[in-house]
Amino acid sequence: MTKGGIPSTFIDEVRAKNDIIDIASKYMSLTRRGGGFWACCPFHSEKTPSFSIKQDGQFYKCFGCGESGNVITMVMKMENVDFLTAVEILAKNVGLEMPTDTESDEMRQRKIQRDKAYAILKETTEFYHKNLLNNPESEQAMYLKRRGISKEMIEKFKIGISLNYDALPKHLMQLKFKPEDMISAGVIGKNERGGLYDFYGTRLLFPIANGFGDVVAYSGRAVGDNIERTKYKNTPQTCVFNKSEILFAYNFVRDLKKERMLDEIIIVEGHIDVIMCHQAGFTNTIGCMGTALTTQHARKIKNLVDNVILCLDGDNAGVNATYKAIDTLKEVGLNVKVVRISGAKDPDEYLKKFGTESFRELLMDAKDCVDFVLQDSAKKYNLEVNAEKSKYITEALNYISKFSSTAEQEIYLSQVQKLVKIPIDALRKSLHAKEEKPQQKEIVEELNENISNRFIIDSKIMLLSSLLYKKISNLDEISGLFTSNDELSKLYRFLVQKIEANADYNVSTLFDNFEISNNSLIDQVINYVFPSEDVYDQYLRETIKRVKLYELKQEKEALTKMMNESTTIEGRFAYLAKIQEIDEKIRKEK
Questions:
Q1: b or e along 298-318 (b: 16 or more beta carbons within 10 Å of the residue's beta carbon)?
Q2: Residues 335 and 370 sit within 8 Å (Cβ to Cβ)
Q3: Looking at residue 435, what is its pLDDT?
Q4: DSSP state of 476
Q5: In this structure, what DSSP letter does residue 18 have?
Q6: 3-state secondary structure of 69
Q7: How far is residue 300's CA from residue 305's CA, in Å, rounded to a whole number?
Q8: Intervals of the chain under pLDDT 50
Q9: Does residue 460 contact residue 481 with C-beta atoms inside 8 Å?
Q10: Which pLDDT score, from 0 to 100, does residue 49 have?
Q11: pLDDT recorded at residue 451
């Protein structure tokens, strides 16, 4: 059995050799309390520790935000990497070599291609950077000087220049890289005659790194008066670069997170905006590189912090981008504040004109995103005209209902009321109409169904938790109680397979084989609170009997339906005989 092309036995070995306490201590300060370790949750802001790590089960659970997982999922979330990369990190941590014999040809080829791309990009970055250092009077170097970018920032961001179209391909060829690999990495182009040329010829280069600091792409800026060239030339999508996932300077804020020096992230637009913010001491700044923020971007940010400040350009395009970014960031649960820049077109210009302290004050006065939208959108309408006032009210209420809690709604409604000058009760009624729930009849039917099923679900959760924590030794006691194909039955079959194979298992094992979301049924199995020892055995017997009776009654209902639908006398008698057998089993269980 494999996951992501890796044998499950190897995954088990990686987990066994990487104690979750040792790994967690690299990311957070742990305190031993009772039977476990506790910390402030790295996935949401809190002052009182609610993040629990169980060494015996090798898993974690936050009782504040509900996040849970094992050592592999912890590395995935803390490092913002996929499953395969997390296993690689943990394997390297304990000196294990990743297996290759079970990889598919396609997987091996992708890995080889990625490794070549990383190597080419590393050499290219060094080549461009040395060009800049060795040519301080070049047009590109003078541009950086005019923009006020310090030597420290040039070194930190590994800024470089391309002097011509020929030097880079020659340099890479001397290092024995193949033309097709250079083209695939996005640094070399091929002309109509088949000749190779530097894709970013004569431009100023801003390297773009992934979360680990590996360069994956470039943004090349044209410098000078050549109006025939586009200002920016960016790396196309490659095997290591997807612009929907990469944020400029994300690697630096990720390092701050590791050092526990990150509470919020500032999001700006351009590369130079980011660099100048870092130069001014705002090292928690990242850039969206002039593209719309995606859900992937937002999730990467959410892995690091709960709070963000949007500080995009002050022109109309920047305001529109701010609106879109708010929606994207709020959808993943981030707390969003907005800075509206005035007197300057972007953060870089603002810092130059008004200084660091003024920018700091601007950030401290950032508005809650809903406040920002309510006040900013009001400027689009003439609120003295009823038709326009109505449009504004509709837009404002849509936003309030979309992103506000019940308590917040009252605050925002009072703000809207001041602007439109109509009774707040009328606004409140309109808002509640938008949030109207399904018809009462549907709610009652759903509630009744939930009540009838919940008791049995809770009983099955208790049985599976007993199996998981090895409180049940006789599988015959509960065989036949998990015959469907639902989540709990899949967990039952997984545990039975482990038991019958005499394979070791614990809570940590589940996170490699199931998608376990907060308060899911399997999450409830993991966190089930058992009755006291003196009544556990009796409770277990009663629970087994209860679930057996339920399963028998379900089977009887299905057979009765089939009997009534049968078109032959023989068929009906056959179903009737089976029903009578079940009736006898029910009588014995009672």
A1: bbbbbbbbbebbbbbbbeeeb
A2: no
A3: 57
A4: G
A5: S
A6: strand
A7: 9
A8: 227, 437-452
A9: yes
A10: 84
A11: 44
* Gap between the Cα atoms of 248 and 272, Å rounded: 10
Q: How far, CA to CA in Å, does 347 sit from each of 24, 281, 390, 442, 504?
A: 37, 13, 35, 52, 56
Say which amino acid occupies 403: F
340: nearest Cα among 319, 317, 364: 319
Amino acid at 162: S
The kind and range of the H/E element at 247 are: none
Tokens for 544? 């087994």
pTM: 0.68
Tokens of 4: 């992501």
What is the predicted pLDDT for the residue at 45? 66
Give the C-alpha separation, 541 to 547, whole Å.
10
Residues in the chain: 590
d(CA 412, CA 392): 14
The Cα 367–Cα 311 span in angstroms is 11
d(CA 36, CA 40) in angstroms, rounded, equals: 14
Alpha-carbon span 403 to 467, nearest angstrom: 42
**Tokens for 153?**
């920032």
pLDDT for 439 = 44
Query: Rounded distance, CA 371 to CA 276, Å?
Result: 28
Q: What angle do CA 382, 387, 389 make, to 5 degrees?
A: 50
CA gap 227, 223 in Å, rounded: 10
Spell out the residues 6+ positions from residue 240 whose beta carbon is closer than 8 angstroms to its own: 114, 117, 118, 121, 185, 210, 214, 216, 217
Q: Taking a C-beta distance cutoff of 8 angstroms, is the pair 310, 326 a contact? A: yes
Angle at 213 between CA 78 and CA 245, to 5 degrees: 65
DSSP 186: T
* Beta-sheet strands, E only, within 333-481: 335-338, 367-368
